[in-house]
Design a protein that fits this description.
Elements: E1 4-7, E2 12-13, E3 31-36, E4 41-43, E5 46-49, E6 61-73, E7 76-84, E8 89-91, E9 94-105, E10 108-115, E11 118-120, E12 123-134, E13 137-144, E14 156-157, E15 160-163, E16 167-171
Parallel strand pairs: 1-3, 2-4, 3-6, 4-7, 5-7, 6-9, 7-10, 8-11, 9-12, 10-13, 11-14, 12-15, 12-16
């Protein structure tokens, strides 16, 4: 697909399209490009899937593909609720980001992220050649539990849950 650049021009409240009484947000699949949130808020992102066989990975995006460089920046995600019962990947921005170069910078997220698989406050799983993480903030809780409900912290992170084979650069307060 075409690699496009998007800029959010006003705050977006998703409660009119997803929530406990409305149903789940459907994560955007295979995003190729750049998203500049311009410090606007996307509030009330809601995904709550109890089906342990579900194939949904989740966040605002299901998957971000970096054919050359993918960027998500200046985005504020407020009141995020993601709970995936299956062994899936959950993160406020994306379940998975893969490809060449990925940049996640100047983003803020608050809420609850829960999965029986991989979980990260912003991105659950990274499979990039190079990854740049700059000045991001996550507030709230990020949790992974095994299907037998015993706590597991083997694939969970406050900002990024898992990186595999990635050259990473992190700046900002850690």
């Amino acid at each position: 697909g075409a690699r496009l650049a998007f800029k959010i021009t006003e705050d977006l409240d998703l409660s009119s399209v997803c929530g406990p009484s409305k149903g789940n947000w459907t994560p955007i699949k295979n995003f190729l490009g750049k998203l500049n949130g311009a410090n606007h808020k996307i509030s009330n992102l809601y995904i709550d899937i109890e089906d342990s066989l579900s194939q949904v990975n989740g966040g605002l995006f299901e998957t971000i593909i970096a054919a050359d460089t993918a960027i998500v920046e200046n985005l504020v995600l407020e009141n995020v609720h993601i709970r995936l019962a299956g062994v899936r990947s959950a993160g406020a921005i994306a379940g998975y980001m893969g490809g060449n170069v990925g940049i996640i910078r100047n983003n803020v997220s608050d809420g609850t992220i829960y999965s029986n698989g991989r979980a990260g406050g912003l991105v659950a799983s990274i499979g990039l050649n190079e990854f740049i993480l700059q000045n991001n903030l996550v507030e709230g809780s990020v949790e992974v539990a095994r299907s037998d409900s015993t706590k597991s912290q083997e694939i969970v992170g406050g900002i990024i849950g898992f990186t595999g084979g990635t050259k990473a650069s992190v700046t900002g307060n850690v």
